[in-house]
Amino acid sequence: MKAFDIIIIGGGPIGIACALEAKKKNLNYLIIEKGCIANSLFNYPVNMQFFSTSEKLEIDNIPFISKENKPRRAEALEYYRRIVTSNDLNIHLFEKVESLSKADGSFRIGTTKGDYTAENVIVATGFYDIPNKINIPGEELPKVSHYYKDPHYYASQKVAVVGASNSAVDAALECYRKGAEVTMIVRGPEIGRRVKYWVRPDIENRIAEGSVKAYFNTQLSEVRENELVITTPEGKKVIENDYVLALTGYEPNFNFLRKIGVQLSDDEKLLPQYDEETMESNVPNLYLAGVICGGMETHKWFIENSRIHAKIIIDAILQKEHA
Ligand SMILES: Cc1cc2nc3c(=O)[nH]c(=O)nc-3n(C[C@H](O)[C@H](O)[C@H](O)COP(=O)(O)OP(=O)(O)OC[C@H]3O[C@@H](n4cnc5c(N)ncnc54)[C@H](O)[C@@H]3O)c2cc1C
What is the CATH number of domain 133-246? Predict the structure, then answer.
């Protein structure tokens, strides 16, 4: 069984930042990533543009050069991939961590490919793997997707976009511009307040002119093969439909956190317990990094403000070692 000072679960931007910091401090580390490098970013919409400017997405002060000031998904993938390969970071890809337990003061980590031991574990598993389900009849039909990738697929189709956040608005606008007949189904009274300020007028104007249809204060109640049932303030309505993009957000893998002993707050936020000074969770020597720290508040942490977790954690680990 291979032994490490640190095992980092998750090879997203923050897991990679932790590995860089560990390497700088000559610690024996390994990233275990269940998909490809920066797997969540890889699964974002192909044309996605970050709301952050590129320097805010930099890790370890390595320059991130992008064509526009706000980079695109492809540029971010290139940036994080080059960091991993150029720095020869120790990473195992397409290997999923399935169990974690403590024995004789060390962690035992079981994956789809083997077992490891480590003195410290950093959980940087993000929130993009588990979509928030609507829990309605028909949601399991193949025409319903909780991830949006490429507008080309939806050309000349009747597409319903559920949600009013950045992802939903981007998908609605892109599909409309590729010739889809787009209907937005929005639970609240307006387009989300966090929608990128330069995108908001575009969607509001498309809705106002009728190019994109929008039902506000409306719930999707049922998905059928060729139609949807929606509940509007005026009552139930049946509309024709080919595809549903249910972009209603994502949540961290709380079952995994519970299984490894991390305590979650009792309220609906399900905030994992950790010390803000060190990022150490209630499980000694188990640290949390990146967006997972926000529990259900998935907007609280992002790359910009969580990249500092890497240095905080590695400093805390070294301080403990020297204590
Ligand atoms: C559409 C969209 C746009 C965004 N735009 C911005 C922006 O402009 N600026 C910004 O700062 N942030 C932005 N964010 C947020 C940011 O992309 C994420 O916060 C970022 O990916 C978080 O990095 P992370 O390393 O914490 O998590 P992730 O990037 O999600 O990485 C977690 C990794 O863990 C892996 N993993 C999960 N479970 C396991 C397991 N059991 N075993 C092994 N590996 C596992 C996953 O495959 C994944 O690669 C955006 C998010 C979305 C969804």
Answer: 3.50.50.60
